[in-house]
């Protein structure tokens, strides 16, 4: 009996996604008591770890940069579904939900995930190395998408307020899809070698030398369990969001802080996966995850909310305020200086983390 229990314990990552989805089915749309919130939080954390495990199995099978792309797109698609669901609930606060969530994702990925990955790799291996060609192209795409979709609405005059007119919103949505599709084609087909990890001597690492690749059957099972785990993560995050919202309001903090906390929870699988890759001196994989997630967050969310806005009531506010535009500009400038050399020390990682800390501080006390 004890031997069987131990065997089951070693396979926890198989059962946790199923448990998470079952729990989500029982709790969806209900006001949860404190005990259930505590259980949901534990299952949510376990689902994050399970998602990371299954993402690494899939990544090991398909190789880079496809593995990073699978996790980034999977998380973002479910995140988009969560945003549209929350917007459909209505309310005055839903007008800025898409903007706040996307901007939080950009700041967390470009500063948090990038910063902690560079810092960890540089401390462990003295210098973090990556390919400036591929990373620079990814950063340029993120900068263009962020400017088109989050900055320009503040300055357009066709519609009152920081909103796009219908034609402008359609253009932004189409441009986002085109740019994201072009990047994916570049990353996975035409210039795949630009997005592979490299050694300190600049040699491309095109295979994982730690273990044999899993079978196709194992990878497909992990892909399915990855989807279940991510559904559980995002769904349970929504379930505990009301408790988080009450706590934020009780602490006298702005409602936007809820979006930051939810974004942190949703992006936790990618953060852990990026950190693990960085500790193995695969910094390029970490940057693929970070910038790919930022890009997917904008490139998939804006078209989705643009389509949803045609039947959802209320305005769709996409334009950032002055403070957030300053933080975005600082992030893009610092990211450019980080990417150009293709090498980073702990200093660069620390700078990115300080920018993230400034964003969180200004979110709490605007």
TrEMBL record:
Domain of life of the native organism: Bacteria
Chief subcellular location: membrane
Record has Ribonucleoprotein as a keyword: no
Limits of the Sodium/calcium exchanger membrane region domain: 36-188, 222-362
Alphabetical keyword list: Membrane, Transmembrane, Transmembrane helix
Location(s) in or outside the cell: Membrane
Membrane topology: Multi-pass membrane protein
One GO MF term: potassium:proton antiporter activity
Transmembrane helix recorded as keyword: yes
Gene Ontology CC terms, in alphabetical order: plasma membrane
Parts of the chain that traverse the membrane: 12-29, 35-54, 66-87, 102-123, 135-155, 167-185, 219-237, 257-275, 287-312, 318-340
InterPro entries, per database record: Alkaline_pH_Ca-Antiporter, NaCa_Exmemb
PANTHER family, alphabetized: SODIUM-POTASSIUM/PROTON ANTIPORTER CHAA, SODIUM-POTASSIUM_PROTON ANTIPORTER CHAA
The name this protein goes by in its record: Ionic transporter y4hA
